[in-house]
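During the reporting period the student researcher (J.K.) took over the structure-prediction task from the postdoctoral fellow and processed the backlog of single-chain submissions. One of the processed entries is reproduced below for the supervisory committee.
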Amino acid sequence: MKRLVVIALLLLLCHALPAHASVLQGLVRQVHDGKTITIENTGRRIRVALKGMDAPEQDQPYGDVALQHLSSLILNRPVAIELTGLGTG
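J.K. obtained the following structure tokens:
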């Protein structure tokens, strides 16, 4: 009987709870390129790299098109960003 109680407790402790990601909300104040933006949140400006995005750099062909397109979609608009990690730079 003790063994069943211990196993039941271990199963309860090992049960994975759903993870809740942090969401950062703010206004997009600057688009740096096709995958990097700066948002303003409570008076602070935070640079955000968009995960899963692949766009040409500014000095590559169509880099200016990527920047203009992303700007037309989100510049000066409210966004909600799900945080997946913090960068070093």
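The committee noted the following: The mean pLDDT is 83.
J.K. will present the remaining backlog at the next meeting.
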